[in-house]
Write a structure and sequence with these properties.
By secondary structure, the chain is mainly α. The protein has 15 helices and no strands. It has helices spanning 11-25, 34-38, 46-55, 61-65, 78-93, 106-128, 131-134, 143-147, 150-179, 185-201, 222-251, 262-287, 295-321, 327-344, 352-369.
Length: 378
């Protein structure tokens, strides 16, 4: 089972080697859902490796606890290897398939697409909107639509959002077809509450209850807390968008809305929480030990955090500058960033959210249909 540390090897092949060692050892049982899922197994197919890679939450507890980590001849580095498998899994399952190559060049592709869309939006607005309108102070109802007409704004945002949803859903379905167990529908439905609880609470970022090795050997819940803050902020921005749409279409009152209205309060708090969550995750990423990390995943993490930060910051800028002459430019920049982000979303680390949810559902199903584990003395 040992190999020279500098020997190049396929990520899935290396993962299979390490998982066999871990299944025989099981010292890390209890850290996360990966180890109960491999208990008693002696070999792993690619579909199982895909499942386990996304079941891993990268809490790194196993890296610091492992007695077979380098410089041991077994050279076990499970977090880094599973991170590399996740990268390959994204590329194999992404839809449309021509997006697969983007995962190797995520950074510059995201920069080019988002930058080009934002620049195109600014150029079109500068050409089409008279300066007195673009740089004017608009505070009455429908002020935003004097700069960017409602039809254009909703079409651009709606179509790009629809593309992101369809592409991510198709990729997730392809992934589920790879890892999904043969289980009756009643078992799947019974497993859903437990899987949903694992998704919402991020239980597997708890390191078995004592915290994760976010930035080194010291245990903490920093990354888990930052995830929760970021998701809460994102949910509030969705609430802001939906409530604004309802006010516009049901009551006939167009944006911008008063400061104390639900769209503005939810959007402001959501944007702030997103930035706080991004800052927390970026701090963890900056201080984290690089040894158990895959460089490609680090790049994908940074790119996604940058996209989320740009989206939140540009949205807050619109709210803060909406009664000034800078509102038109701020709105155009925000629209460009949002549309560009939606266009590149299926080729970013954002896929990890639905893929991980699918892996947790598979694990919950397995717990229902697998025979009970016996201790060594039975």
């Amino acid at each position: 089972m040992s190999r020279p540390a500098d020997t190049p090897i396929d990520a899935a092949t290396e993962a299979e080697r390490l998982l066999r060692i871990c299944a025989a050892c099981m010292y890390c049982d209890g850290y996360c859902a990966v180890f109960p899922a491999i208990a008693g197994k002696h070999g792993f197919l690619l579909a199982e490796i895909d499942h386990l890679a996304h079941l891993c939450h990268n809490c790194r507890g196993c890296w610091y606890a492992c007695q077979y980590a380098p410089p041991h001849p077994f050279a076990v580095n499970l977090p880094r290897t599973l991170a590399a498998v996740r990268q390959e899994s994204f590329a194999r399952h992404v839809r449309p398939r021509w997006l697969a190559g983007a995962f190797a060049r995520t950074g510059w592709i995201v920069a080019v697409v988002v930058g080009a869309v934002t620049l195109a939006a600014l150029t079109l607005v500068l050409i089409a909107v008279p300066p007195e309108i673009l740089l004017g102070v608009h505070t009455s109802g429908g002020a935003f639509y004097r700069v960017v007409p409602w039809g254009i704004m909703t079409a651009a945002a709606g179509l790009s959002f629809a593309w992101a949803v369809v592409a991510v859903a198709a990729a997730t379905l392809a992934f589920w077809r790879t890892i999904g167990p043969r289980a009756p529908l009643r078992i799947v439905l019974r497993a859903l509450p437990a899987a949903l609880a694992d998704v919402v609470t991020l239980r597997n970022l708890g390191g078995g209850g004592h915290g994760c090795n976010d930035t080194g050997e010291k245990l903490s819940g920093e990354r888990r807390a930052s995830h929760h803050v970021l998701v809460a902020g994102f949910a509030l921005t969705i609430l802001s968008t939906v409530s604004a749409a309802l006010l516009h279409h049901v009551t006939g009152v167009p944006a911008p809305y008063p400061v104390v209205s639900l769209p503005v309060l939810a959007g402001t708090l959501g944007g702030v929480l997103m930035l706080v969550g991004v800052a927390g995750l970026a701090a963890v990423e900056t201080r984290a030990d690089r040894e158990p990390a895959a460089p490609a995943e680090i790049r994908m993490n940074i790119v996604l955090l940058a996209l989320l930060a740009a989206t939140a910051a540009s949205g807050l800028a619109v709210l803060g500058l909406r009664a000034t002459a800078a509102m038109g430019l701020a709105l155009t920049l925000h629209l460009g960033v949002v549309v560009g982000t939606f266009l590149v979303l299926p080729a970013t680390k954002m896929l990890h959210a639905p893929f991980r949810a699918a892996a947790l559902l598979r694990a919950a199903i397995d717990r229902l249909i697998a025979p009970p584990r016996r201790s060594g003395g039975e």
